[in-house]
TrEMBL record:
It comes from Paenibacillus xerothermodurans. This is Sugar ABC transporter substrate-binding protein. Residues 23-42 are annotated as: Disordered. It comes from the Bacteria. Keywords: Signal. Residues 1-24 form the signal peptide. SUPFAM superfamilies: Periplasmic binding protein-like II (SSF53850). Pfam families: SBP_bac_1.
Length: 436
């Protein structure tokens, strides 16, 4: 049986992090076990770990600080780090795995992306090597397959509609709550020569946020769960056709910057449209705040967010959120030093690491004992606790072949090169082949 990706009740996901918080200066591993010195300390022969991650900016600084703490506890271990942008990372990591030379500790998203490598017997089972009670169970579930844990989550990433408060104030706009209000905001911005929404959709996943939110707002999380579980509904459900129609309504309304399907996200061109006030909004995860703090710190005072709007007659709860656990730290089964690699993962998910991550990157965390002092992180945590459901990204949940088709057809919907009916039909035909 496939594991459903939507938690119907997720109030406990972050409540313990907020209410049973440890002091901000608390040290130690989330495992609750003091890190041990390496057995070969003083032998004069250093062991080496390779650690790969995707995030730049403050997130990277938090990771590297955790690495330094690990190295102080393990003075005879060298840690080689490599930061690679998101989309390049996926390809580079797949090549390393297939070539038999993966890093010891690596960034993952859990879900279907990680499970592909688990199925290939390339990821270390770390069940029983950490204190599971220190983590949100819902977040931990995303890297648990057949009762075995293959990664520890640090952060929780939430997608919201980010906007420039100054632009909204200039044109007397309020954050929209309904689709009709959203369209009126778009029209007003266009009339004033402002690009309504910045989109860099060359890697396809940024546009997928729209498909997922529109499907949820139209029919609720049950539609995806049923299509994924093969329990009655399919990816050709009228709700998916409707979601495609709403995407194309935005495209035909010219709500996005020109050439959006050919613009790479990691290069930052889409974000520059926000920073330079050429565009007013962007649908993106809270990783955007991390980008702002490293790329355009002065812009942060203008930044705010609102929930994705409701649809006419929509069945999805307006508080439902697109979310993912990221980063999830996993260990390669080919690691020559698996116990040390696990110790590094535990340092990367220690309370001290999690507190710094929440304070400096605007991200809720999957680890208990953290107080939310950052305004964005606090609001995100509240949104999660108030949500009736979280839905995980399709491309990190579906099998790789179907996930890629999901991104391809969604990008084609934005480009108006396929009809919503055709996109839904293609998805369902492939689902019948790969979801058994």
């Amino acid at each position: 049986m496939k594991k459903a990706i939507v938690a119907s009740s997720i109030a406990t996901l972050l409540l313990s992090a907020c209410s049973s918080a440890a002091p901000a200066d608390q040290k130690g591993s989330a495992s609750g076990t003091p890190a041990q010195k390496t057995a070969d300390a003083g032998s004069g022969q250093k062991k080496t770990l390779e650690f790969w991650y995707i995030d730049p900016g403050e997130k990277e600084k938090v990771f590297l600080e955790a690495v330094e703490r690990f190295k102080k506890k393990h003075p005879d271990v060298e840690v080689k780090t490599l930061q690679t942008p998101n989309d390049t990372y996926k390809q580079k990591f797949s090549v390393a795995m297939s070539g038999g030379n993966p890093p010891d500790v690596f960034h993952s998203w859990g879900g279907g992306w990680l499970k592909e490598f688990v199925n290939q017997d390339n990821v270390l089972d770390i069940t029983g090597k950490f204190d599971a009670a220190a983590f949100s169970q819902q977040a931990l579930d995303n890297s648990t397959f057949d009762g075995k844990v293959y990664g520890l989550p640090l952060g929780l990433s939430i997608a919201e509609m980010w906007y420039n408060k100054d632009i909204f104030a200039k044109y007397n706009l309020q954050p929209p709550t309904t689709w009709d209000e959203f369209l009126k905001v778009i029209d007003t911005l266009k009339q004033n020569k402002v690009i309504p929404i910045a989109l860099a959709n060359q890697p396809k996943w940024p546009g997928a946020y729209y498909l997922m939110y529109l499907a949820d707002r139209a029919e609720g999380p049950e539609m995806f769960n049923s299509a994924f579980q093969r329990t009655g509904r399919g990816f050709d459900d009228p709700g998916y056709v409707k979601a495609g129609e709403y995407i194309q309504e935005l495209a035909k309304r010219e709500a996005f910057n020109k050439g959006f399907n050919g613009i790479a996200y990691d290069a930052g061109q889409g974000r520059q449209l926000l920073y330079t006030e050429q565009a007013a909004m962007m649908l993106m995860s809270n990783a955007l705040v991390n980008n702002v703090r490293s790329e355009a710190p002065s812009f942060e005072k203008k930044l705010d967010f609102f929930p994705f709007p409701t649809l006419p007659g929509g069945k999805g709860d307006p508080g439902n959120l697109q979310a993912t656990t990221a980063p999830v730290w996993s260990v390669s089964k080919k690691s020559k030093n698996p116990e040390l690699a696990i110790e590094l993962v535990k340092e990367l998910t220690a309370v001290e690491t999690a507190q710094a991550y929440a304070d400096r990157t605007a991200s809720p965390v999957a680890i208990k004992g953290v107080t939310y002092q950052d305004a964005y992180a606090n609001r995100m945590a509240e949104a999660v606790n108030n949500a009736k459901a979280l839905f995980w990204p399709y491309d990190q949940t579906l099998p790789a072949e179907l996930a890629e088709l999901h991104k391809d057809t969604t990008q084609a919907l934005f480009g108006l090169s396929i009809t919503p009916e055709e996109a839904a039909k293609k998805m369902e035909e492939k689902a019948k082949q790969v979801l058994k």
